[in-house]
Amino acid sequence: MLYIRTYLIGILSLFLWGCGGSSDSQPSETPATTPPEIKSYIISTSFNEGGFITPESFELAENSDKTFVISVDQGHELESVSGCNGTLDEDNFTVSNPAANCTIKVRFKAYQYSVNVATSVGGWVDKPNYQLPYGETAKVNINPNSDHFINSVTGCGGRLNEQQYTTGAINADCTVDVNFNSHFPIPAEGIERIRLPVVVHVIENEYVQISDEQIYSQIEATNRHFRALNRDDLETIEDTLVPYIADTGIQLYLATHDPDGNPHSGINRKTAALSIITLDNAYAKAEKGGIDAWPNDQYINVWVGYARDLQGKLGLLGRANIPGLVEDRLVGVVVADSVFGVIPPREPRFDEGKTFTHELGHLFGLIGHTHGVPTDENTHRHLTCDGQPTTQCKNSDLVMNFMNAESDDKDQKMFSISQYKVMQTWLKTGPLQALYLNNQNNN
């Protein structure tokens, strides 16, 4: 029995040992954990000419920030910057806590500068002012009146090529100064220069062909007559009459703009089977195929066209339609094409352009001629040559006067001082006052 109990106790002890704990045993290991993934996003940039932003792209982690630096080129400024919920502080754009790929958009713009064009009397420019971005240039088209030329053009670092002035690259506000000089000198003290625009209406047909150059030559010649600059003629006048020669101060130029303000050459052409000697004055009536006058309070209207009879004989050389004596639409001067201008060939005896000068004298108030009916006491022919109450000379004595209709062109040479005074009065306070007043800024 003892043996069996001992055996059981041994087995029980073995069981208890196998199932019991011990202070020297190791705890079981805890499983390893993976740290959360940190996301990052691409911050890209876009910008136009005028500056840049750095860096151009950047990979930015979430919950972080990055400052981008904006640089502006000379002559430009920052117009706008946006994108990525960033904030701008002067030239720094900071992006924080991105949540997606995004783009910073930067826009620059060039500074705008003013280029102003100042002109003297005697011409005009197509455009008087420009707004230009930094670095651009302006091309200024310059148009002298027919009685002036371009004397100088300066300013804005430019250069002149014929009648176009190109500025340098603009980097500041600046002014172009255009100076015109007259083909004719300023009148002597006490004589006002009166410049008046002329529009020449040419009625063209198979018999009438007159060039622009011929028209220019007539305006130039007539200006010399009215300004006493026809020196070859004046040198032949006898010494006793020289003191009576007048510079009238009147100067013509071809109109530069039409009545609507559009640029114009001052030469208006129309093809029509019309004569300028018709009794119904069709040449000046558009409804009859002619050319309507431009407003005669702004322009001198001149019609040039055919002036021969049915046998081809030249009859009327010219005619002045004087205010108050004809309807307003006819006011002006009519001249035969073959005596208008001084470029050969012209009509024999009337080849120096003095028909137009003579007719303008009538338009400007010299009613009648220096020769004529002796009882014609109310015309300028009876005025003293110098305009004084008494003198030894009367206009009727001046056989070389432009208002002597019995003389050929080669014998017409001068206006007198009294005639000059009549014309100035006629323009300033007489029937052509509106024409004078509307053109005072051109003087």
Give structural notes.
The protein has 6 helices and 22 strands. Helices cover 14% and strands 29% of the residues. The chain has 443 residues and is α/β, with parallel strands linked by helices. This is Peptidase M43 pregnancy-associated plasma-A domain-containing protein.
Task: Spell out the CATH superfamily of the largest domain.
Answer: Collagenase (Catalytic Domain)
**CATH level 1 name of the largest domain:** Alpha Beta
Beta-strand residue fraction: 25-35%
Oligomer: single chain
Give the overall pLDDT as a whole number: 91
Estimate percent helicity. Answer: 10-25%
CA distance, first residue to last residue = 158 Å
3D shape:
elongated
Q: The CATH topology of the largest domain is what?
A: Collagenase (Catalytic Domain)
What is the radius of gyration computed over CA atoms, rounded to a whole number of angstroms? Answer: 47 Å
Q: What CATH architecture of the largest domain would you give?
A: 3-Layer(aba) Sandwich
Write the layout of secondary structure elements.
Blueprint: H1 2-19, E1 40-47, E2 51-54, E3 57-61, E4 65-72, E5 76-82, E6 87-89, E7 92-96, E8 102-110, E9 112-119, E10 123-125, E11 129-133, E12 139-144, E13 148-154, E14 159-161, E15 164-166, E16 174-182, E17 194-204, H2 212-226, H3 231-234, E18 250-254, E19 267-271, E20 300-305, E21 318-321, E22 332-336, H4 354-363, H5 417-428, H6 433-437
Sum this structure up briefly.
With 443 residues, the chain is α/β, with parallel strands linked by helices. 14% of the residues lie in helices and 29% in strands. It has three domains: 40-110; 112-182; 194-371 and 378-442, Collagenase (Catalytic Domain) (3-Layer(aba) Sandwich), CATH 3.40.390.
